[in-house]
């Protein structure tokens, strides 16, 4: 039973990886970017857990900046993905423009909140 | 304690008597003015700061009869010579130099005077402003007096008179020059002085219609005179915010100088009411002794011009003492002097009436004539009128001049009212203190002698009453109601209670019902010291006496009874320095060690590094970057624009506020939209071409 599970898991991972290699490079970049943002956020949360939340607005803006960009990047990924039929008619350039605009607005708010 | 309190009481009484007495008693110039003048006009290292100040000092000394000339002589004459000899001296300095010389009589050569005379005459003929006329004509008059040059005349005296007169206003005030619409009372005084000088410099008679018009101006000026309740008159500027504001004293003294100078050179009466001249003199004397050199000069100089003026010489009725004691049998003494303190012409002083202050009833005495003592120049009434008792009175005096010709020369102002305090001993009789039962059955009554020492000891409980009674009567047997009649009970713990003793006629009585006072006494049983105060300004035997003590037995306090107020331990503690105030500031938040924060800063950079390595791993390239020049330029601009916006955000965080940031962001955003749209649509068109291909 245990063997089957581990081999099944191995098979599952293998298939996932082979499926992922076929993903376009642009989507991989976005994935990488999302990971980068999430990890930065995690490090800040750890810092908060170790030190305390004294300049709380600074902590919030730091974490929300990361999480916000990550969410926006995910949205971009959804729109850019060619498999996604829903956004078939949407040009990726248009999606990128949205992404840039949203990021600028988000960071304006973040900067205002940073103190 | 009691002794010091008594002393304090006497002080208050003295202050009261003094303050109410000076209110409308005017004393002529006296020796105290002389000593103050010497103090105020002290030259610094032998000389004054300006010629004007030198003149003010010399003139004040001259009027007061102080001989200080030798001290000031050398330095002042030196300065006079320099000013008169120099051709560039200001007109004002020339004027004051001549005035100083008029008093000091420095040795000045004839040709110097001639030079000054010709320059002053040139100024007069070209002058247009009031001050120019005042200084130049005034200077010429002084030169004429000093050099006894009888041929010194103004070429066109009537013309000069006319041009000064042209500056006058319809209300009797004057303008400083024809361009300035503001008129001033102070300037009117200067103008009258200048006009008087012009008249004395005129070779022929000035047209009487001009003189008449000026007299009319003076009458109109006196319509604007201001008045206090005690019969003093003064002039004041109507406009307070003029360039060089003059106070009531300098304004009044300017008008007085001008008026007397003008009256001296013109013939015929001015028809001014003599009461107003007397009122002006009273105003000038009512100031007392000024603490300022300029004020003292103004007061003394204008009083000197009133002393021998041709309008009306004010006579001042004054009393050496306005507090008269019945026990010392003081007599009413009255002095009549001119303003500078010289003796008055023969006259009779009558005591017309004596009124109790506050009541307007009939006079207590008939008209009585005061006896004149020629040696001391004092008018005296041997004894106070019999009907005058202890109290505050208003005495009304009247001066009657003997010589009917003097009536037009002197201003006596009719009747003069003077407040007088009559003090005396007040009899204190039949004083007794008693403790009564509530049914009015007296348990113990003790007589007390309020003129001597008393040590009465009483005891009472809360169901009993304390009664204190005494009688006050004046030496004439009238009832007397003092300012203060206060009974004070002081507990051992220094808690004090004061009660006002009420009166009906001569009889003073107070009843303390302890049942109603238990709460006020804070249920404090024990020994109370009893003290009685009777005091008044006119009562010579005002007293504060300890009567004895009272043992009071009060019930136990209920639970919710009020606590006696905390007693102030010491006057020093009350008024001494308070404890220092220490401020508590907000404690700063605990911050982590710097190393830890820096380590985490490095850690947050790690994912970025990972991101870049990942990018390299994926084999990212910039092959899609447009190669042709125009789109490449747009692409570069697009990225630069984003960088600029991020830089703007950094600036916002570091020092700008939201509004500046948003303004800049508006422009940057528009630019970014434009280039972004261009580059992205270009990329889109390429990809769509690829697709269709």
Automatic annotation (TrEMBL), chain A:
InterPro entries per the UniProt record, alphabetical: DAD/Ost2 (IPR003038)
Signal peptide stretch: none
Alphabetically ordered keywords of this record: Apoptosis, Endoplasmic reticulum, Membrane, Transmembrane, Transmembrane helix
Listed GO biological process terms: protein N-linked glycosylation
Transferase among keywords: no
Compartment list: Endoplasmic reticulum membrane
Presence of the UniProt keyword Transcription in the record: no
One Pfam family it belongs to: DAD
Top-level lineage group: Eukaryota
Annotated Gene Ontology cellular component terms: oligosaccharyltransferase complex
Topology class, membrane: Multi-pass membrane protein
Residue intervals passing through the bilayer: 30-50, 56-76, 96-114
Pathway assigned in UniProt: Protein modification; protein glycosylation
Predominant location category: endoplasmic reticulum
Similarity annotation: Belongs to the DAD/OST2 family.
Subunit details: Component of the oligosaccharyltransferase (OST) complex.
Annotated function: Subunit of the oligosaccharyl transferase (OST) complex that catalyzes the initial transfer of a defined glycan (Glc(3)Man(9)GlcNAc(2) in eukaryotes) from the lipid carrier dolichol-pyrophosphate to an asparagine residue within an Asn-X-Ser/Thr consensus motif in nascent polypeptide chains, the first step in protein N-glycosylation. N-glycosylation occurs cotranslationally and the complex associates with the Sec61 complex at the channel-forming translocon complex that mediates protein translocation across the endoplasmic reticulum (ER). All subunits are required for a maximal enzyme activity.
Name this polypeptide is given: Dolichyl-diphosphooligosaccharide--protein glycosyltransferase subunit DAD1
Lineage of the species this protein comes from: Eukaryota, Viridiplantae, Streptophyta, Embryophyta, Tracheophyta
TrEMBL record, chain B:
Transmembrane segments: 599-620, 632-652, 658-680
Residues in Ribophorin II second domain copies: 315-422
Signal sequence annotation: 1-23
Pfam family, one: Ribophorin_II_2nd
InterPro entries: Ribophorin_II_2nd, Ribophorin_II_3rd, Ribophorin_II_C, Ribophorin_II_N, Swp1
Subcellular compartments: Endoplasmic reticulum membrane
Keyword Acetylation among record annotations: no
GO cellular component: a single term: oligosaccharyltransferase complex
Domain (Ribophorin II C-terminal): residue spans on this chain: 585-684
Domain Ribophorin II third: 430-552
GO BP annotations listed: protein N-linked glycosylation
Topology in membrane: Multi-pass membrane protein
Sequence ranges assigned to domain Ribophorin II N-terminal in this UniProt record: 29-307
Main location: endoplasmic reticulum
Transcription recorded as keyword: no
Keywords: Endoplasmic reticulum, Membrane, Signal, Transmembrane, Transmembrane helix
Subunit structure: Component of the oligosaccharyltransferase (OST) complex.
UniProt similarity note: Belongs to the SWP1 family.
Function text: Subunit of the oligosaccharyl transferase (OST) complex that catalyzes the initial transfer of a defined glycan (Glc(3)Man(9)GlcNAc(2) in eukaryotes) from the lipid carrier dolichol-pyrophosphate to an asparagine residue within an Asn-X-Ser/Thr consensus motif in nascent polypeptide chains, the first step in protein N-glycosylation. N-glycosylation occurs cotranslationally and the complex associates with the Sec61 complex at the channel-forming translocon complex that mediates protein translocation across the endoplasmic reticulum (ER). All subunits are required for a maximal enzyme activity.
Name the record gives this protein: Dolichyl-diphosphooligosaccharide--protein glycosyltransferase subunit 2
Species name: Salix purpurea
């Amino acid at each position: 039973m245990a063997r089957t599970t581990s081999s099944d898991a191995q098979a599952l991972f293998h298939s996932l990886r082979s499926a992922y290699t076929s993903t376009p490079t642009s989507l991989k970049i976005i994935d990488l970017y999302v990971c980068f943002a999430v990890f930065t956020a995690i490090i800040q949360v750890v810092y908060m857990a170790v030190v305390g939340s004294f300049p709380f607005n600074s902590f919030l803006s730091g974490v929300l900046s990361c999480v916000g960009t990550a969410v926006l990047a995910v949205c971009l990924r959804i729109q850019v993905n060619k498999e996604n039929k829903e956004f078939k008619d949407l040009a990726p350039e248009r999606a990128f423009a949205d992404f840039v605009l949203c990021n600028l607005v988000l960071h304006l708010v973040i900067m205002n909140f940073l103190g | 304690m009691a002794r010091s309190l008594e002393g304090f009481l006497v002080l208050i009484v003295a202050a009261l008597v003094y303050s109410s007495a000076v209110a409308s008693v005017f004393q002529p110039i006296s020796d105290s003015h002389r000593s103050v003048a010497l103090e105020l006009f002290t030259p610094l290292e032998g000389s004054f700061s300006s010629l004007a100040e030198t003149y003010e000092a010399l003139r004040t000394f001259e009027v007061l009869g102080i001989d200080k000339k030798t001290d000031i002589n050398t330095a002042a004459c030196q300065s006079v010579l320099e000013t008169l000899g120099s051709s560039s001296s200001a007109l004002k300095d020339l004027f004051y130099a001549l005035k100083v010389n008029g008093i000091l009589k420095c040795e000045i050569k004839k040709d110097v005077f001639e030079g000054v005379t010709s320059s002053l005459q040139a100024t007069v003929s070209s002058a247009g402003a009031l001050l120019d006329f005042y200084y130049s004509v005034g200077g010429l008059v002084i030169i004429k007096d000093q050099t006894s040059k009888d041929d010194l005349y103004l070429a066109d005296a009537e013309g000069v008179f006319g041009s000064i007169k042209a500056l006058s206003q319809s209300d009797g005030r004057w303008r400083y020059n024809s361009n300035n619409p503001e008129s001033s009372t102070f300037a009117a005084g200067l103008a009258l002085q200048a006009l008087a000088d012009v008249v004395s410099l005129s070779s022929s008679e000035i047209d009487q219609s001009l003189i008449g018009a000026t007299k009319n101006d003076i009458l109109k000026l006196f319509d604007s005179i201001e008045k206090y309740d005690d019969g003093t008159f003064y002039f004041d500027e109507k406009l307070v915010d003029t360039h060089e504001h003059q106070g009531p004293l300098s304004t009044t003294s300017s008008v007085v100088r001008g008026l007397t100078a003008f009256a001296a050179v013109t013939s015929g009466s001015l028809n001014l009411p003599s009461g107003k001249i007397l009122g002006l003199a009273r105003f000038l004397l009512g100031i007392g002794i000024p603490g300022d050199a300029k004020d003292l000069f103004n007061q003394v100089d204008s009083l000197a011009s009133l002393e021998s003026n041709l309008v009306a010489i004010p006579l001042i009725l004054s009393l050496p003492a306005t507090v008269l004691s019945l026990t010392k049998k003081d007599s009413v003494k009255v002095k009549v002097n001119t303003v500078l303190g010289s003796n008055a012409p023969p006259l009779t002083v009558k005591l017309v009436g004596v009124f109790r202050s506050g009541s307007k009833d009939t006079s207590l005495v008939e008209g009585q004539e005061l006896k004149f003592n020629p040696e001391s120049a004092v008018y005296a009434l041997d004894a106070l009128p019999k009907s005058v008792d202890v109290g505050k009175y208003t005495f009304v005096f009247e001066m009657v001049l003997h010589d009917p010709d003097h009536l037009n020369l002197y201003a006596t102002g009719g009747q003069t009212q003077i407040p007088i305090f009559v003090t005396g001993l007040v009899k204190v009789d039949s004083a007794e203190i008693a403790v009564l039962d509530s049914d009015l059955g007296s348990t113990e009554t003790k007589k007390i002698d309020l003129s001597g020492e008393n040590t009465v000891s009483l005891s009472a409980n809360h169901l009993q009453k304390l009664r204190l009674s005494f009688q006050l009567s004046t030496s004439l047997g009238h009832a007397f109601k003092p300012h203060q009649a206060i009974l004070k009970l002081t507990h051992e713990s220094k808690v004090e209670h004061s009660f006002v003793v009420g009166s009906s006629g001569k009889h003073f009585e107070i009843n303390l019902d302890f049942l109603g006072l238990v709460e006020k006494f804070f249920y404090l049983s024990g020994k109370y010291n009893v003290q009685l105060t009777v005091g008044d300004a006119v009562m010579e035997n005002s007293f504060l006496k300890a009567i004895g003590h009272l043992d009071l037995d009060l019930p136990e306090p209920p639970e919710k009874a009020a606590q006696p107020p905390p007693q102030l331990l010491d006057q020093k503690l009350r008024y001494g320095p308070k404890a220092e105030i220490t401020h508590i500031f907000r404690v700063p938040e605990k911050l982590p060690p710097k190393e830890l924060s820096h380590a985490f800063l490095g850690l947050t950079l790690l994912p970025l590094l990972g991101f870049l390595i990942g990018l390299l791993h994926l084999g990212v390239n910039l092959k899609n970057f447009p190669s042709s020049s125009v789109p490449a330029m747009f692409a570069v601009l697009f990225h630069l624009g984003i960088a600029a916006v991020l830089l703007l955000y950094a600036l916002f965080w570091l020092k700008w506020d939201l509004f500046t940031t948003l303004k800049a962001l508006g422009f940057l955003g528009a630019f970014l939209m434009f280039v972004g749209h261009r580059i992205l649509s270009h990329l889109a068109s390429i990809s769509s071409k690829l697709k269709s291909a």
